[in-house]
Amino acid sequence: MSILIQQATILTMKDTDAPFTGDIRVEGDRITQIAEHILPQPQDEIIDGRNKVAMPGLINAHQHTPMSLLRGFSDDLKLMDWLERKMLPAEARMNPEDIYWGAKLSIAEMIRSGTTAFADMYIHMNEIAEAVKQTGMRASLTRGMVFLEDDGGRRLQEAIDLVERWSGAAEGRITTMYGPHSPYTCPVEPLREVIALAVTEDIPLHIHLAETKEEVMKIRERYGMTPTEYLEEAGMFEQAHVLLAHGVHLNRRDIGRLKGMRGGVAHNPVSNLKLGCGIAPITEMLAQGINVGIGTDGAGSATTVDMFEEIKAATWLQKLDYGDPTRLPAKDVLSMATRGSASLLGLQNEVGILEVGHKADLILIDLAKPHLQPVHEVESLLAYSVNGADVDTTIVNGQILMRGRKLLTIDEDELYREVKVRAKRIVEGI
Ligand SMILES: N[C@@H](CCSC[C@H]1O[C@@H](n2cnc3c(=O)[nH]cnc32)[C@H](O)[C@@H]1O)C(=O)O
Ligand SMILES: [Zn+2]
What we know:
The protein is of the alpha/beta class. About 35% of the residues lie in helices and about 25% in strands. The strands form three sheets. Strands 1, 2, 3, 4, 5, 14, 15, 16 and 17 form a nine-stranded mixed sheet that branches. Strands 6-7-8-9 form a four-stranded parallel sheet. It has a four-stranded parallel sheet with strand order 10-11-12-13.
């Protein structure tokens, strides 16, 4: 199958390219041509790109997709109360089918708001993988592991099974990571064991880090160090590629410890704002050459997984924090949500920019709207004015998943029916 997008405003996100008007051809799962004019072929599915921006799909670098079922059910609580009193009891009631439908709900929201890949950390990962496979999305999947009780190695075994069964599956759309949940839920012995496994198999790691002040205090009491030092002492940054979620409470020395690491930090500004966690020092990390991407965290905390909301929040917070509107300009924050996140998922040679030979993961944004006119600077509109509902078309791996705002791989009526019944049962009485 081939697709020809004609006369779109193309934003490749490569440093050297300014936005220009042109055509894009997709053949199979890859971009095969980008030029001012491309001759149509009889087999081409033609997409009119006029009044639309074509850009790389956004990449959500930190998600717990099935938490969409818990959206809006326990807002306005402190993180530890929210997690321990609400989320964990609700999660204990989720069966594998619930996880499948919750993941699908998040995926539908992501496709509708221009996300083409995500990194997920959760439980019952086979069901999430099935949802990814069926919907055509791209994902890096992680079985999150809390090591607070002896489970006879069950969690670790599930993580190993996920990596064995799903790495490279669904035409290569699925990759995997190992996921020790956080410094405060992972004692040093199992942590070292998981790191060793990740290094031996060359599988990345995905972990929460320094999300709250309470976490920093807890780790200082337990081990006499910062959460970042704790991970460094365990050997996490020596060889493994690591996706660190949050990194809100990092001091200057912590940031120094991350310099030169493989992987980087997923910034989740809306979740951090809503849980009152603080503002991650991401412009300092960027200045130190640390790679930073953007994620949403689960919809249980952020309540939305629209990456355009995160883009706005990320840049506003840096400007506010430093009292300096020149911080994190439009181009840089868009780069974080595309190229930065792609690197966190280890996919920087495949996605994150529009480039011939790369996988065809791209979105079209409709500019024929009052809030998106006139067009002075495309990047400014994308960072400050666009929202997820302005995305017209979403393409992943050369397959059109949404066209003219209609989802092509998900039956939405069925989805909402399933979600309604399941969500009610899960939260009853909690
Ligand atoms: N409970 C599992 C681990 C699940 S991994 C994903 C976990 O991360 C939790 N989670 C979601 N958002 C956050 C956050 O912001 N900080 C810390 N944990 C979170 C989520 O509720 C879920 O339990 C076990 O027994 O091993
Ligand atoms: Zn999280």
